[in-house]
Each structure stands twice: as C-alpha cells, then as structure tokens.
Write a structure and sequence with these properties.
By secondary structure, the chain is an all-alpha fold. Helix content is about 70%, strand content about 0%. Helix 1 (about 20-50) packs antiparallel against helix 10 and helix 4 packs across helix 7 (about 175-205). The longest helix is centred in the first third of the chain and has 32 residues, at about 20-50. Mean pLDDT is about 90; it is low at about 1-10. One of its GO terms (molecular function) is L-ornithine transmembrane transporter activity. Belongs to the mitochondrial carrier (TC 2.A.29) family.
Length: about 300
C-alpha cells in the first residue's frame, strides 16, 4: 500500500506516495460532493436555522430562495466549501486509509472487522473537523445572511475576518467545535464502516479486485453510506447549525452551548425540532455521497 508509483521512462516528474494519492483522490471526491449537493444543503441549513413556521416544506423553502435570489441563490457560499470541503474530504480519506493500513498490519491477512472499520472512519471524521468546522461555519453564515444591502458578509474572507473579530478570535471561527467533533466522529465512523463493509462483501461474493468494481456499485454503496451517516447523527447536525447561526455577541446569544440548545429545541419544538431539513438531506445524500465515492475510486484508479 505504501509503494511508490514508478517514475516515467524519461525520468520526468516525481513519484507519489500512497498517502499523497489518498489525499488527491479525497480532494477530487470532496469537490464533486459540493457541486452535486450544494443546492440541497442550502435548503437544509435554512430550514434547520429558521424560526418554526418560516417554511411550510423543503419545496416552499426552495421556491422562496429561488424568488429572492434566483438560480444562483442555490450556490450561495459555494466557494468556501468547494475549496474547504475538498480539503476536508482529502483529510478524511487520507486519515481513513492510514487508519485502515494500521489495522491491516495487525489483522495478519484477514479483512478488517466492523469495529476496526468504524474506528478508522471515526478517526477520519475527527481529523476532518480541524478544517470542516470553520469551513461549515463560514458557509452557514453566508447561506443564511438576508438578501439586503449592504450585505453582512462580502464573501468568505470578509466573513472569516468578521467572525474572528466579533467572536473573540479563533473561538469565533471555530464556534460549535464540540458538536462538530461528536457529529463527525460518530457519523463518519458509520459512514465509512458502511461503505467499506459493502465493498468487502461485494469483493467476496464476486471474487474481483477492488479496482474492478463498476462505478455504478461505487455510487450505490456511497449512497447507502450517506444514509448511514445522516441517520446516525442528524439531530447533532441540527444543533451545530443552530449554534453556528447564533449571535457572536455573548450578551445576545440565544443558546449557552450544546446542551442548552438541545433543551431549548426540545421544549419549543419537540422531536420535530431535531429533524428540520431532514427531507432535503435524504434526497441529497445518495447523489452527493455516491458522487464522492465514485470520484474517489476513479481518481485512485487513474493514479494507480
């Protein structure tokens, strides 16, 4: 797994290590995920963070967004996730493959079990939060800012600077880091465990090599993994979004923290408060996550 690519016959170019290939493949998968899933994501975030009764349904939210901002409104704040999520997924796959190699060294030739696959995914998820949290915070602020002039934020950089100044330094940019760690640790453990377990089963039943799995199966297993991710942690994602749209001024905040946000959401909305935006997320999931895995697998084949 750690072997180097053979250099070209003319000696030009540098070889890539397996880790470098993992990072490049993950970056390509991440950017593909953003381009496919961004319109669904902005609808999800607006429903999650809007006061109860603002939108009658995901379709109502999408319709109002279209009327207010036009078709490009569905790609508000895309530059940040396009670059940032590309980096995030790059870290995810790099950490995942590194953890899998670690456990494979102890497995002595057997397939990794579900526990090892989950731990590999959880490690990837937690490692990912260093970049994912600030990227998602900036994206959410841009996605939810009102369509007024002057704008609150004139792009990702302006937003990052204002979050830093108004939020008390780095803690303003890394707001809701704890729920992000919980979400990505548990969620990506389930995500990658589901995908890798399905791939293992496919290889056993067909006798083929991983690089011979058709893109259609990679999309299918990626879609299943996406559902495993969201069904395992969606309420935590709602809490994270609420905290990241709360005031940066400590005297004007609605929520004191993750636990307080959970209590207030339960008291005001009950179980429905933790499921806002679930429908567009589930519609988005098979497309975005299927595209992520097939892009990663195809990129790895091209580099190998």
């Amino acid at each position: 797994m750690s072997e180097l690519l053979s250099p070209p016959a003319d000696g030009a170019g540098l070889p890539l290590t397996q880790t470098q290939k993992d990072l490049i493949g993950g970056s390509i998968g991440g950017m593909t995920q953003v381009l496919v899933g961004q319109p669904f994501d902005i609808v999800k975030v607006r429903i999650q963070t809007a006061p109860a009764g603002t939108y009658a349904s995901p379709l109502d939210c999408a319709t109002k967004l279209l009327k207010a901002d036009g078709p490009l409104g569905f790609y508000k704040g895309t530059l940040t996730p396009l670059l940032g999520i590309g980096a995030c997924v790059s870290i995810q796959f790099g950490a995942l493959e590194g953890a899998k190699r670690f456990f494979a060294g102890r497995a002595k030739g057997r397939d990794l079990n579900l526990g090892e696959l989950w731990l590999s995914g959880a490690f990837a998820g937690v490692a990912n939060t260093v970049v994912a949290n600030p990227v998602e915070h900036i994206r959410i602020r841009l996605q939810t800012q009102p369509a007024v002039i002057p704008k609150l934020y004139n792009g990702p950089l302006d937003c990052a600077v204002k979050l830093y100044k108004q939020g008390g330094g780095l803690k303003g940019i890394f707001k809701a880091q704890v729920p992000t760690i919980w979400r990505d640790g548990v969620g990506y453990g389930c995500y990658f465990m589901a995908y890798e377990a399905l791939v293992q089963k496919h290889l056993k039943s067909t006798g083929i090599k991983r690089e011979d799995i058709s893109p259609l199966w990679a999309v299918t297993y990626g879609a299943a993994a996406g559902y495993a991710l969201w069904f395992s942690i969606y309420p935590v994602d709602v809490i994270k979004s609420k905290l990241q749209t709360d005031s940066l001024d400590s005297t004007k905040r609605t929520y004191k923290g993750m636990i307080d946000c959970t209590r207030q959401t339960w008291r005001s909305q009950g179980i429905k408060g933790f499921l806002g935006g679930l429908a567009p997320t589930l519609i988005r999931s098979p497309f975005a996550n299927g595209a992520t895995f097939v892009a990663f697998e195809l990129a790895m084949r091209a580099m190998n």
